[in-house]
Design goal:
It is a single chain. The protein folds into two domains: about 160 residues, Rossmann fold; about 100 residues, ProC C-terminal domain-like (ProC C-terminal domain-like fold, Orthogonal Bundle), CATH 1.10.3730. The chain has ten helices and eight strands. The chain has an eight-stranded mixed β-sheet, sandwiched between helices. It is elongated, with a radius of gyration of 22 Å. It starts with a strand and ends with a helix.
Length: about 270
């Protein structure tokens, strides 16, 4: 079924979403974009409506979903203009702005607006992201399906019933890619310290992180099982893991990191 999509903001994440929609069969004519800045039109099919502000939209235009993909810092200026669509019972508002709560959008759009808050992550740019969604009580099942379908176009989706859980989601998956990039950096740096040329160390670390991640994605085994499968008693992997899994090793360090990110997410949503 055709879905009329209004994309507000076409930066990196907005563009990733748009490309995912088009790749999975959304017609260009079903999409309108409002972007005050310039939109890179390279690769975009004809038929997409491009507008610098809401006033440029067609008269009597009524979207099925309004996707907010502008920076959280300017959402307070942007969102209220779209209150005019909240009177349409068939319109759902989907936000991917970190830290902007459902309560914020109810304040900007009206307490009766159907609102879905989503937390994607940056691998959405290559359609390998994961997004967790949470809806207010005005969002019906059909609207939930629309939102999930739009975000399935850039990876996996999951729902939570309690909005407070999105702080932990932000800490694990939203910020998580940075932890993996740091792991690759740390492995390369350690490889250099034990004598590897920098270019080889960086290549080994990058390929190992990427390959192990793909193996984890494709395997039905748990991460723990996969770890055990490559750990021979008395071998090199066991020697390294004895350090990483020590009482002051990676696990408690990661717990502290996730808690710090969760706490900060709560502060920002404050």
């Amino acid at each position: 079924m055709a879905t009329a999509i209004l994309l507000v903001g076409c930066g990196k994440m907005g563009r990733a979403l748009l490309e995912g929609w088009l790749a999975t069969g959304t017609a260009a004519t079903d999409v309108h974009i409002v972007e005050p800045g310039s939109v890179d039109q390279e690769g975009l099919p004809a038929g997409i409506g491009l507008h610098q502000n809401i006033d440029g939209l067609p008269e009597n235009y009524s979207p099925d979903v309004v996707v907010f993909a502008v920076k959280p810092q300017i959402m307070g200026e942007v969102a209220p203009a779209y209150k005019r669509f909240a009177g349409n019972a068939d319109t759902v508002f989907l936000s991917i702005a970190a830290g902007r709560t459902i309560g914020f959008f109810e304040g900007a759009l009206g307490s009766d607006a159907a609102i879905v808050r989503a937390m994607p992550n940056t691998p959405a740019a290559i359609r390998r992201g994961i997004t967790v969604l949470c809806a207010n009580s005005h969002v019906g099942e059909d609207a939930k399906k629309i939102c999930a379908t739009l975000l399935d176009a850039v990876g996996e989706t999951a729902w939570v019933a309690e909005e407070s859980l999105l702080d932990a989601v932000t800490a694990v998956s939203g910020s998580g890619p940075a932890y993996i990039f740091l792991l690759s950096e740390a492995m390369a740096a350690a490889g250099i310290k034990v004598g590897l040329p920098a270019d080889i160390a960086e290549r080994l670390a990058r390929a190992t992180v990427a390959g192990a991640g793909e193996l984890l994605r494709q395997s039905s085994d748990s991460a723990g099982k996969l770890r055990q499968n490559v750990t021979s008693p008395g071998g090199t992997t066991e020697a390294a893991l004895s350090v990483l899994m020590a009482g002051d090793g990676l696990i408690p360090l990661m717990e502290k990191a996730i808690k710090a990110a969760t706490d900060r997410s709560r502060e920002l949503a404050g």
